[in-house]
């Protein structure tokens, strides 16, 4: 042990890996480290003053601002990132943009994601999806996988409670002119996607379909009449610009572009052939909430510490969804159009095509729905997909649900699909009770 210790040499300085590279930290921690060092702290204050009310060229022309920027580029703040769903996510993003809005022109079509990169794959969840989607072609052709996903959610107390909560909130009529509260709907949706494991949420969002009834159920997953559709479609560039005035929405949009932007140098059209990163960033756009008082020109830059937590205000309209109930093609779009774009029409169409004609996003959704993950590294091949043994028990059903203990009984699915499509009257049975329960939910 002593010999090995002596060969290892002295430990790396804090914040560096053994090769001398600076290890990125989250921006909240980087902010604390900077505040503890007088040089960094004073330069950070200087840079904030430089950014206040000035454009980037004016700032860079000032020698004091340049010096502050150079010092900060050697500090943990420069490389800091945020973790998705971290406790102080909004605070972290506020710190990130307080630095990086001064380092860029501010007019880039694509912005780098402030989030830590997703390195793991969805192998386990994809294998789960392949089992759920039905390995037997005979049953696969009859199954409504989106109904399967809803049944699986009902078998999990947390998923059932939060799904029931957002459906109820998004379906509650406020008045004759306002059929729902979009802000409350978005908040409930965000809680669902943040607090429920992705093996449930992804199955609801990305289930594969062979008929229109299934595809319509998939489209209705987020209750689009409240969370998605509106009286008029805004211009897509106006929508993007409004999104960029908010730290959270700007971050989620940048994350989507980083992880879903079509890459023709990869086999899957996804950056790094990473489906998980794309699906996660897509889900991150759903139900985003808007902060209060965050216009780009008048945005008060955060103090070093402590930072106030931003208040959440009205719901943001960047939420994407399926545009129709087609089972054969997948078309995703935010609620916007390029009408009235003028000389910016080409840029607007480019932004819209990143959703509607995005091969990475389409391939990722189809792969998950079919349970076919990609693994391009021969050193770590994906284990073969095998269905669970028949002796494995399904989770116990809640007492208030009258249902079969078989989660994926195709006869039940077929019965429910028949009720939904044809309104057939059936004798009272467990299958019928499940269908009625699902319709009420």
From TrEMBL:
What keywords tag this UniProt record? Cell membrane, Disulfide bond, Glycoprotein, GPI-anchor, Lipoprotein, Membrane, Receptor, Signal
Look up the domain of life of the source: Eukaryota
Sugar attachment sites: 370, 427
Q: Where in the cell is it found?
A: Cell membrane
Q: A single GO molecular function, which one? A: glial cell-derived neurotrophic factor receptor activity
Xref: SMART domains:
GDNF
Taxonomic lineage from the root: Eukaryota, Metazoa, Chordata, Craniata, Vertebrata
Compositionally biased intervals (Pro residues)? 380-389
- Topology class, membrane: Lipid-anchor; GPI-anchor
Annotated S-S bridges? 34-40, 146-207, 153-159, 170-185, 180-226, 209-214, 236-336, 243-249, 260-278, 270-360, 338-348
Q: Name the major location.
A: membrane
Q: Name one GO biological process term.
A: nervous system development
This chain's protein is named GDNF family receptor alpha-2
Any one of the GO CC terms? external side of plasma membrane
Q: InterPro entries, from UniProt?
A: GDNF/GAS1, GDNF_alpha, GDNF_rcpt, GDNF_rcpt_a2, Glial_neurotroph_fac_rcpt_a1/2
Family statement: Belongs to the GDNFR family.
Question: Where do the record's region annotations for Disordered lie?
Answer: 1-20, 371-404
Q: Do the record's keywords include Zinc? A: no
Q: What are the GDNF/GAS1 domain coordinates in residue numbering?
A: 27-104, 146-226, 236-360
Q: Which PANTHER family match?
A: GDNF FAMILY RECEPTOR ALPHA-2, GDNF RECEPTOR ALPHA
